[in-house]
Specification:
The protein has two helices and ten strands; from the N terminus they run ββββββααββββ. By secondary structure, it is mostly beta strands. It has a single domain, classed as BH3618-like (Roll), CATH 2.30.290. The strands form two sheets. Strands 3, 4, 5, 6, 7, 8, 9 and 10 form an eight-stranded antiparallel β-sheet that branches. A two-stranded antiparallel ribbon has the order 1-2. A hairpin with a 2-residue loop joins β1 and β2.
């Protein structure tokens, strides 16, 4: 079966997911740290508001969980350099949308952690993204992330 116009079908280990082409993001300067060769991802809202799925559609469905960093730290700030703004075609601060990567614990009782030091910055209008290293040394690599700060939402994608 063919996907409708304007959509892309991703094969994930949880099944086929049909997403709008607008959800496709390109990392023009290389992918995520450790995944530099993967430069195309799909960004989808998760079942909790402020959490997102970042899925590599052509790389065995490599999937990351991203979170709104401002829910974890209201004073969080990102200072993008001139090259980063140019790579992402960010002309105005409102063009930038930042998320941080979560690491989920393997065992029960442990809390997920957020990498506040290397956020992923998106220009949603241009469908561009880049992982950047924050110049702010106080940002933690493993900040405890209480997922109850992110309320359930309708319309989010649930994997599993």
């Amino acid at each position: 079966m063919n996907a409708p116009q304007g959509t892309v079908t991703i094969t994930h280990h949880f099944g086929a997911i049909e997403v709008a082409e607008e959800a496709m993001m390109t990392f023009p300067t290389g992918g995520l740290f450790g995944f530099e060769k993967i430069t195309q991802y799909v960004l989808l809202p998760a079942a909790r508001k402020g959490l997102w799925w970042l899925i590599a559609p052509n790389a065995d469905a490599t999937t990351f969980v991203l979170a709104d960093p401002f829910a974890l730290d209201a004073d969080y700030a990102i200072d993008l350099g001139e090259h980063e703004r140019a790579d992402l075609a960010i002309e105005d601060a409102n063009d930038a949308f930042a998320l941080v990567m979560l690491t989920l614990p393997e065992g029960t009782g442990a809390m997920p952690t957020a990498n506040m030091r290397a956020p992923i910055v998106f220009n949603l209008n241009k469908r561009l993204a880049a992982q950047v290293v924050s110049r702010e040394e106080s940002h933690e690599l493993q900040k405890p992330a209480n997922l109850t700060l992110y309320p359930l939402q309708e319309g989010g994608v649930s994997l599993g």
